[in-house]
Amino acid sequence: MYHTARLLFLLPLIGFFFIPMGFFITYAISVLVGSVSPLFPMISDTGTTHPSNYVFGAIVHFGSLVYCVTGLYVYTIRRMLISRASNLTPWRKTTAVWVNRLMPIGLLISTLGAIVVAHVEYTQNPILHFVGTLICFGGAMAYMTLTTILSLAMPLMRWLSTVRVAICVTTSVCFVGFITHLHYVVKYGIQQQQSPTSIFIGRFHIDPQQNDTNWTVVKALAMGSFCEWLMAFCYGFYMLTFAVEFGKIRVRLPVPVIDQAAADVYGKDEPKEARPMPMISINYNDFRH
User: Fold this and answer.
1) Is this model's pTM higher than 0.90 or not?
2) Domain presence at residue 8
3) Which segments cross the bilayer (predicted)?
């Protein structure tokens, strides 16, 4: 026996609750203990001290796992829809097939980068941490780009394709801004100095009047923080768009069935359960083109 339910939409919702909304928890903890400034901290800065580092690691681990499972469901569902679509032109169907095959690669790369970020704190190994950050955001960018191409080649809901294009373009601009911020920070370095004219930004006390490069670094840190937070939210909103599609997907969950013969032998308190495999039920006509 099966119980049919529309529960898949909960996956993107849970993922959005942990990433990026969960980062507000580490931000609040870090600001309260005074380890970071309320002004433009990097996301990684909010997870470098106790107890926020434990919360940060748990959020990144669980959230990236939920996003990975969500992306794999997207791959499976799209593959089933592509095989059932009869109104696609040959080039659109070929594009959809190959893009759908490449999508999990970007997803897994992003998950790997998130695991590196969760395990290696910025204060322990900043180079490896930023490498993990670039892998995470780079893989997410690749996944979002491929998914957007697939949404355009095989639009299930046209308004949703437009939303994904807008989010993808915004994330691309932020990714370029994040790379630019790293360039200026590496080029000029961060010179900390506490003085009446210093600015507490992120984890650093920087005096912009000490030299000209310090003001450039302050602006670079502000730009990098803004771009990183916006990228995290864009990725979260992008994954959240799958909740709309998942709401039309029926998941067949297994329901325990009592074997009467076994119940007579073992007693009614120890029934034998039948465990059919769960399946996904999709009706292509449920989606509006």
Assistant:
1) no
2) yes
3) 7-34, 54-77, 98-120, 126-153, 165-186, 220-244
Cα 89 from chain centre: 32
pLDDT of residue 140: 94
Burial of 1 (0-12, 13-18, 19+ CB in 10 A): exposed
pLDDT < 50 regions, the chain = 1-3, 258, 262-266, 268-278, 289
Region at 195 (left for phi over 0; alpha for psi -120 to 50; beta for the rest): beta
Task: Residue 148: give the domain boundaries.
Answer: 2-248
Beta-carbon contacts of residue 285 (< 8 Å; ≥ 6 apart)? none
Strand partners, 251: 5, 280
For residue 159, is it within any domain?
A: yes
What is the structure's pLDDT at 274?
Answer: 47
Query: Does residue 268 fall inside a structural domain?
Result: no
**Based on the structure, what is the number of domains in the chain?**
1
Which residue from 143, 118, 152 is spatially nearest to 234, judged by alpha carbons?
Answer: 143
Specify if 41 maps to a domain: yes
Read off the DSSP letter of residue 209.
T
Is the bond leading into 20 cis (omega within 30 degrees of zero)? yes
Measured distance CA(92)–CA(152) in Å, rounded: 9
Rg (CA), the chain: 24
